[in-house]
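Our preliminary data section would be incomplete without showing what the modeling component actually yields. Below, a chain of 321 amino acids is followed by its predicted structure, encoded as tokens that our downstream tools consume directly.
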Amino acid sequence: MNKKEEIEFLGKYFYIKEDQNPFDDFSLSFRFKKMFHFISVMIEHHPFVIAQFIGNMFQIQEFQFLKEQIYRDLQANVIFSFPRLSFQNKLSLTKMKLAYIIGSNQFYIPELAILINESMNEKPLIPNQPLSLGAQNILFKLLVLDRLETFQSGLHELIHEEEYEVYRAVKELEKKEILKIEIINSHRLIALDDKETIWNQAKPYLKSPVMQEIYVQRDSIHQWKEQLVSAGVFGLSKVGMIMEDEEEYAIESKLYKEIKDALEPSFQGHFDAVKLQIWKSKIVKLSSGLMNPFALYVSLQNENDERVQKDMEQYISQFWR
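Predicted structure:
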């Protein structure tokens, strides 16, 4: 793994910049200089030294000593880099809380409180397989961003998602050629200047998050009303031209399981009936509290009314401009 590959790999997760000054190995023993190549970097504005292992003997005590010496001399943490590593040696590093990179798919950096093991978690991509709901939800958030482009580093803070979830989602969207990524100075830049094309590329891979639809009595959902989100044609009526009197709300499956025993069943057409969509994923919302337009679109995929379809298309087209 060369210097560029390591920095590019870590750049998928963090803001990283190589130090322009070469690493000063003056105080290190000749043995350490023969065992490692060193790169000074800043990761999330913290100083680190990447120690690329080029030796033959794996000695955990020497790694610990090197880490302590570099921290004492330079106040920088050390990340050990290996092209491959046995499970036992990886376990030894983890137990000693020594940061490491293995190839271009695993790393453990306790100083940043993160463990990534992509090779163990990644599932092979199946052609024409729908997007995972996690990737789908993150795509919906990207499509409403008022930006023409955004760096992947820091995106999780922008859209309020876990960093690793964003990484996995972007990777999945990139593999399906829904998102286009450009590498600029080791940073991954996501192009968002043509959201309509992104949306059209994604549509064949989308799936409804709705598990089930039921009717309940309006009074029985009163105390949880703030946790529900206007959905279906009723949700569209809040933002479009179409009118709909039948109340309909989305509820996440976790909340539904907690409160289902308190819900009083009803039936379609009853004056006091409210329709609930039970979602198996998180419900993506706008800052206003309304459902994300693209999540709303997917939840209405089985709606055959042409007026609804036309109104929905007009609504989402606002986000192309």
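The mean pLDDT is 89. The radius of gyration is 25 Å. Preliminary results of this kind motivate Aim 1 of the renewal.
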